[in-house]
Amino acid sequence: MELKLSDIIARLKVPGLKESNERHVIAKALSESLGILIAPKQIMFKEGILSVAVPPVVKSALHIKQTEILERIAREGITVQSIR
Predict the structure, then answer these.
(1) Which one-letter DSSP state was computed for residue 12?
(2) How far is CA 1 from CA 4, 68, in A?
(3) For 37-59, what is each residue's pLDDT tens digit?
(4) Cβ density class 16-35: b for 16+ within 10 Å, e for less
(5) What residues form DSSP beta bridges with 83?
(6) How many helices (H) and strands (E) does the chain have?
């Protein structure tokens, strides 16, 4: 059996890929729910706690629509315990 470099690389996990994907999914859900663009770099998600780096006015809107946002994110398979 011959091993190819591509086979070895395919088995390796890319560090940060899962976290990056989660940030993109969450940013998309927030953008669609709030009607404004939220960039993935504004999202920090760790151990079920979601932090969003946005102005206070946007945070207020986020908390008003929190239930809708959490449901939208949960449909994508990401569990958020709290939004800060």
Answers:
(1) S
(2) 10, 52
(3) 999 999 999 999 999 999 999 99
(4) eeeeeebbebbbebbeebbe
(5) 50
(6) 4, 3
Residue 43: beta bridge partners? 52
Q: Residue 82 is encoded by which pair of tokens?
A: 């709290």
Query: Domain boundaries in the chain?
Result: 14-83
pTM of the model: 0.81
How far apart are the C-alpha atoms of 82 and 84, rounded to whole Å? 7
53: CB partners within 8 A, 6+ apart: 42, 43, 44
In angstroms, the first-to-last Cα distance of the chain is: 52
* pLDDT tens-place string over residues 20-42: 999 999 999 999 999 999 999 99
Both tokens of 14, joined, read: 């890319």
Rg (CA), the chain: 16
Residue 2 DSSP code = -
